[in-house]
Amino acid sequence: MNGKLSNGFLDASQITWSEVRKHDYDVVVLPWGSIEPHNYHLPYLTDCYLSHQIALDSANAAFEKAAVNCMVLPPIYLGSQNPGQWNLPFCIHARYETQKAILLDIVDALYLQNFRKLVIINGHGGNSFKALIRDMARIYPDFVIVLVDWYDIVPKDDFFEEIPDEHAGEQETSVMLHYFPHLVKMVEAGKGNAKPMKIESLNKKTGWMPRNWSEITEDTGIGNPQKSTAEKGQKYAEEVVSRIADLLIELKDFHPR
Ligand SMILES: [Zn+2]
Hints:
Oligomer: single chain
Largest sheet: 4 strands, parallel
CATH topology: Rossmann fold
CATH class: Alpha Beta
Radius of gyration: 18 Å
Order of helices and strands: HEHEHEHEHHHH
Bound molecules: zinc ion
C-alpha cells in the first residue's frame, strides 16, 4: 500500500517467493481494519491504511533494533459495524462468524507452515477479537495470538487537543496526514460533533449497546479533526511504532508451552 520500505522482505503485499525463501520468520503480523465512512475527509479504507503502515513500520523497527524478522500480511478490510453506519453506501459489516472464519483460515494456514506467533494490529474500534482469540487457543494451544489496538496503546491526551476523539478525529487524521497526506481532504472535514445517547445510563457506561451512528453524528465522525497536523501524527505514530516493535522483539524469544 506504499512504495518506500528499506526492508521489503517483511511486506507480504510486495514479497516474492524467491525472497521469502532466503529468510526465517519469527512473527507474523496481521493488520485488520474496516471499510466505512470516516467523516467527510478521510478515505473509507483509513483503518486498513493505518494499521498496515503501522505494522510495516513496527516490523521494520524490530528488524533494525534486534534483527527480528516479521512478515506483515495484507490488511483485512472486513470490520464489525454499527447500525446507522452499516447502511451507508459501501460500508460493509462483517459478522462475527465471518471474522472468525477469516481468522481461523489464516491461523490454520500459518500453523501448517510451522509459524506459531501472530500479532493482530487492529485499526478499527468496532472490532473485538478477544473471544475469537480464546477460541483459537482451544484449537491451536501452542499458537500464540497477540492483539494490539494501535490507536489505544498510547494515551491521546499527551499528543492531541480535541478530546474525546473516537472516529476520524484529530488522532486518526493527524496520523493520516503524516503517512498519506494525498488521501486527506482537510477542506471537506466536518466537526465530528457527537450527540449523547438517549439513555443516560449508556452515556455513564452503566450498560452498553451498539450506538446508532446516524443518530449521534451527522458527518460520521466522533472527534474534531480541525487541529490535526502531520507533525502531531508523526510524533504519535513514532511512539506507537516503538512500543509495538518492542512487543515483536520480546515475542521472538517467547515460547508457548
Ligand atoms: Zn478509523
